[in-house]
Amino acid sequence: MVKIKLEILKKLPEKSSNLPTLLFVHGASHGMWCWQENFIPYFSSKNFPVYALDLRGHGKSEGFNDIDSFSLSQYADDVMEVMNQLDENVILIGHSMGGAVVQKILSLHPKNVKAAVLLSSVPHSGMFKDLIKLLFTQFKNVRQAKKSFSCENVRFPFEVYVDDNIPSEKLKLYSSLIQLESKKASLEIFTSIVPKNLNVHIPMLIVGSKYDKIVSAKSVALTAKFYKTKPIILNNLSHDMMLDSNWKIVADIIYDFCAALPRKKYVCEYAKTSV
Questions:
Q1: Sorted alphabetically, which PANTHER family does this protein's record hold (predicted)?
Q2: Which domain holds residue 231?
Q3: 3-state secondary structure 150-166
Q4: pTM score, two decimals?
Q5: Which DSSP letter does residue 127 get?
Q6: pLDDT for residue 145 is more than 70
């Protein structure tokens, strides 16, 4: 089996820290670029060691020519590859399809995870119901999105992911960064992600929003119920919470959750400049 080279971002705190390490996992058709504008600067400024990756076939990682064959389990392998380079358990933060990848890891490698954060995540049972709703409420945008991958002059309708306050120049930038997603993984997210009898024994933070046009607040609540925790349902954030004009609301919630977890028994390495 040919090993795929992954693009990994590593940003260490500017001073010594015993805070837990965060590893960000992006969603479908995205890359780690979605974390770089707001979340990575925010959490690194709070003295957290921060990592992110481009899943295989995404961003600067290898494999785009074979992307349609990649599964959620292979994406989970990519995240595990990064985790195995660290000498500690990490907090996984997954968005949308990245949340499904995190759930796969909780099912397959639970001992490697300190805690998990799911943001606007694909539900544990899959998002078939959300897809039906999306087709009815966002049919024009769904059709335009599909066309944008085959026609250069058709822009991906990124406004379905973010709030109305995002400037047009940023919408154009984000639209240009969106890419094709694996057909195999795209089909997998519409069915159950984890076994129905899965028991998870780590702290979990599950966040959704009533304004999310992709994953409903109801689906987020059902996922939280499955993992025996209470969801945090926000009123005014979009699906791409990390790029929303109110992104700091959810960033502060994640910070409070992560900062309350047990600290490391040792002080991590640090760097005066990012790596």
A1: HYDROLASE ALPHA/BETA FOLD FAMILY, PEROXISOMAL MEMBRANE PROTEIN LPX1
A2: 7-259
A3: CCCCCCCCHHHCCCCCC
A4: 0.92
A5: S
A6: no
